[in-house]
Amino acid sequence: MNDTDIATERRTATPAELGFSMPAEFAPHDACWMLWPQRPDNWRYGAKPAQAAFVAVARAIAESETVFVGVNDDQYENARNQLPSHIRVIELSSNDAWMRDVGPTFLTHPDGRLAMVDWEFNAWGGLNGGLYFPWDKDRRIRQKIAEVLGIERFITPLVVEGGAIHVDGEGTLITTEECLLNPNRNPDLAKPEIERLLCAYLGVEKIIWLPRGCFQDETDGHVDNLCCFVAPGEVALTWTDDDSDPQHAISREALGILEAATDARGRRLTVHKLPMPGPLTIAETEASGVDRLSSSRPRQPGDRMAASYVNFYIGNSVVVMPRLDPAHDDEAHAILENLFPGRRVVAVDAREILLGGGNIHCITQQQPRV
């Protein structure tokens, strides 16, 4: 085989065929990537309260691993002065701050190589229900990070956000039909074709489909707000015992599917219930601080937010969870301490992140150790 043949094979082979796969979040990391919030039509009062929350998250994760924060040029000096010196601030333009969804999905190879999947991104629905326009800067983030790290980038036309998938690192992926089968994501692809592409690009062998994500989740039901792997064969699930709350039926439906499922290695899943905070709604003062633009999602007083303790980040030595509701914060903290006995659970005030439409897992992306 000559050099041309090898190059052609490399271009046509999928990551799985080349031996790459996506590790679990609870596997060791080299770093965590974040972005800096600033857009006034999503974050109230010029994003100053949100910036303080992002700094707290970055500080907590930096106890555990290197943290990179990408910043638009006009906010570089502000971010650099707010963030501790050991957190690496780099100029990385974005339309908003959801690194989980606009950033790369990292892959590793048994020979020690790092690579990434560059999904298509359309701002959670494009012109059919998307959350803002334009999203041109967000689409370039993955290419820029690949060049910074000097790693291979596998480009796919499949529209997938990082928050739409969770893997166990042993061949199993969990996602929701509400998101990946939504007509505003991949309207020309049927479920079997989406499964084939997920397996080809992430190196997984089995996909567990949950019907819906959390109630009123503006991402069209991202799984990372509802359910996540905490260990091989174990998942955490957001839960409420209040059968009058719409979330109850969603969580009960998911519980039945998870308890009946087996993973790629044939194991039955153990499901750990995390209490749902709230319900939490946007206050009048919180909504009044947001600019109203036709190209972005409005924030109205009384709107229910898709609050979830499942939206936490698993670092090397810490688990960073959102502090959202005094009635349930301590219970959720205790459950996570039991699930991660080798890590310190750090609770961060995260309502300001929730007001923007997501939470701690949504604003972070782990770079696995190779």
Automatic annotation (TrEMBL):
SUPFAM superfamilies (alphabetical): Pentein (SSF55909)
One Pfam family per UniProt: PAD_porph
Keywords annotated in UniProt: Hydrolase
Coiled-coil zones: none
MF terms (GO), sorted A to Z: agmatine deiminase activity; protein-arginine deiminase activity
HAMAP family per the UniProt record, alphabetical: Agmatine_deimin
Record protein name field: Putative agmatine deiminase
Organism: Chromohalobacter moromii
